[in-house]
Each structure stands twice: as C-alpha cells, then as structure tokens.
Structures
1.
Amino acid sequence: MSSPPNVLDPPTWFHLGATLVFAVTGAIAAIRRHYDVVGVFALALVTGVGGALLRDGLFLQRGPPLVLTDWRYLPVIGAGCAVGYLFGRRMDRFNLVFSTIDALGLAAYGVIGAGLSLAAGLSAPAAVLVGVVNATGGGAVRDILAREEPLMFKAGQFYVLATVAGTALFVALHTQLGVGPEAAAVWGLGTTFLLRVLAIQYDWRTSPLRWEPESGTPPG
C-alpha cells in the first residue's frame, strides 16, 4: 500500500535536538578513550549525524544531506562536545537522566528516518529499516571508528528492538490505518521511548544466538 500524501515533516528543532543528544554520547565516548579535541569532535560528529548521513546518502539519495546544507548542525555538534566535556565526569550521578534523554533521541531519530522515507516514496518495510538505521547508525559508525565491535550487534538491553517496535508502529498506523502523521509519530516515538526506559529500569535483555557443541565434541 502506498504511503499517504501527507507524511511527517518534523521541524528543524526536532532534528537538531536529536543530533545534540547523540553528539553528547559520542563526545563522552571519545573523552573516556582520552582522545584530543579533534577526536572528540569527530566521534561527536559521526554519532550525532552518522545515521542521518547513511539515511540521506545511502537510502534516500535525495541530494546533499540535510546535515551539509544547514549550517546549524555543526554548532550543535560543538555544543554536544562542550556538554560531554563539562558533564562527562559526573555522568554516573546523572546516569538515569542521561539514559532517558538518550532514549528520547533514539525514538526521535527512528520516527524522523521513517517519516522522510515515506515522503520519498519508499515502501513501509523499507521505511522501518531506514528509521532504525537513522536511529542506530551513528552509534555503529562511532564504534567502528573507535575500533570496537558495534554495541548494537551484542546481546544486551533492548535498544535496536525498541527502535524497531516504535518505528514499525508509526509506519503501520500511518500507512495502513490512515492515522495522521503527527498522531502516528507520537505513538511511535512514545513506544520506542517507553520500551527503552523500561529496558533500562528492569534490565530487559536479548540473548546471544549460538550453536551448542554436539555430544562428544570438545568445546572450543
């Protein structure tokens, strides 16, 4: 079923707010690795806008990415570096607050990516995929540049699955049930946010998939 003509078009502050949240996480990750100012800015940049660059350049191919056409993104990345530097050492004290803000950024990016994909004429399943990449791609690029196994691939607290659930709900409500884009976005964003916060609160986790050794076969 084709997407309705009135698709979600988030205001610029919505994009910038999500970028700021993820830039802070990238800056903190870089500071904890003892990177210099260039390294901190680089990780903040790829974490903050990496998902959007993948969305616009790889999937939507709609010309220069929004990140490169709006000058406000770079100051926002710089602000994320400053926040990470000022509060990174005290992050343990504000861990719950920071995790809550991160969950909100995750939810926002998932809805943004899916909404822009529907606007570009992508199918519903493709819109969900792009939304998830938009939300989690920056973190994956950050881990790769820092020479670590991407966190999203490891068994752990619901992160990608929470994004999939909320993004899929947004797309289903909008394309299949005819719910308006703003109302569908609220439901999708709220679902991702709630699942992520509950996963943090109750430590809901995924389990690794692995082959058990056959009988008589030594492990390893």
2.
Amino acid sequence: MSLFQVLRNVFRNLDEDHFKILRIIEKNLKKYEIIPIEIIEKQSGLDKSSVEKLLKKLNYYKLVWCPRGKRKGYVLNYNGLDLLALRNLVRRNIIESIGKPLGVGKEADVYEGLSPSGQELAIKFFRIGRTSFRGYEKKRPTLHQYHSYLYASIVAAEKEFEALKILNPKGVSTPEPIARDRHIVVTKIFRGVEIPSAQYIGNPLKILTRILDNIVRAYEVGIVHSDLSVYNILVTPSEDIILIDWPQWIWRDHPMANIYLKRDLTNLIRYFKRRWNIENIPRKYQDFIDEVLKEIFNTA
C-alpha cells in the first residue's frame, strides 16, 4: 500500500475536529517544542474531554505523539504534517495519486505522482532531522535556528519553491515548479540519476560545461546554490542535466555568496578531474571562475 493510500485510509476515519487539532498543533510549532494541552484546548474552543478524545485518536493513527514523561503536551509528526499538506493539495486539484519513490535522501523523499488531468508529477517531502541526518544544523546554517524539525522542513520547502519559481522561467535547468504546501514541493516529473551513479556518461566535458553554464545563468539571475555537488545534479542517458535541492540558496549579494560559489565550483571541478582526468575547461567558464576568486580575494 502506497503512502497516499495509507493516509487516505486514515483520512476517512477523521472528522473536521481532528484536522482542527492538527492545525492548532502545527500553528504552534515555531513557538513550542511541545505544545501544551492547555494551549490546544484554548485555541480549539473545545472542552477538555473532547480534546483528549481527539488527541487519543490522532495518537492512535500516529499523527501526533506525546513525549515520554510529558503527559501534558503533544508534538506533531511527519505523518500528521503529510496528511495536512496532501489534503490541501488534493483539494486544490494538484495531486490525484502518489506512486513509487523516485528517490530517498537524507533530508527529503521524492515520489512520482499524477495530477487530476493525468500530468506526471514529482512530489518532494522534506524530512529534515530524521535519524540519519541528526547533524543537519552543522550543514544547514539557514535552518538550524528552528527547534522543530518539521518547521525547518516547511521553511526548506518554501525556500526551494521560491528558487525554482525564479530560476526555471529564466532557463536554468531545474525541476519545473507547480505547487507547494507546507513541507511538500510539487514539480513536473524529471528523470535522471546522480552523476556518480550514471554509467552512461560518454562525454563528461559536455556534462561539466552544461553544469557550469547553468551555474553562471543562476548567478546572472542573482542566485547561488551554495550546496551544489555531483550528488544533487541529475543526468539523463541523453546527457541532459538538472540541478536539484535548492533549500540552501542565497542571493548573489549575500556576504558569503562568493565563498559558497567557490566551494560549489571547486567541488565539481575536482570531481570531474579525479574521475575523468579533465584538466582544462572552456575559457569563458575559466574567466568566470577567476572572477569569482578575484572578488573573494579583494573582499578578504
């Protein structure tokens, strides 16, 4: 049974008051690490007995949980956040169904899906803070300020969707954005595999120049990826590329922009040199790299 089917089955057993409680807990994610029952009661306008019954059922379906030893408060989990977001996306006629996983990463899962009109979709669920990525705050400085991983995931999705809306219309090779709700980003389907896993690359210099061309184009638009590596660049058998994972992007005038851009460029060029022995790149890209390094040196 797919994720979508599981949540749809749960949905059928909940009423509007259950969703009211979920939304109240969600609304307080930024303020509270554990939302006190008193706050839930006050904001819901329901009596204590009703709130306790609603929370008990939500807990049974694993949509919220009560931390051990903290009997007076509840926390929303990713199942609950998924349900809220997918409910909205279905109501907005964005998603009709969700299929198999396209990719499972450290901070996000991507599933294939369909719209009501039959359009193929890629549906990305941000999952910041899962067990395999507990040290995310060391690598995600723009997100670590939030005590709630769920809230950090919502912010990450918001930032990524913003980047895609800016870059894709300008011809930068990114997923084409369709919609966002909470921690879910919906785009048109995209195919390809991460560069280290692609066994069909016949012209690595062409791949590298296409990547550099997109980095330059994004920079001209005013955006630096700031976390780019061969693991978030997908390549197709026809050697087209697509740049993914944009929650860490920053504006070009950010004080650290050129430092991060240098890191992105250095990581890529070192990889292609190590794997395919590419020593020289076209002059126009070398000039761009030299200019970035020059700006870093002049502002140091």
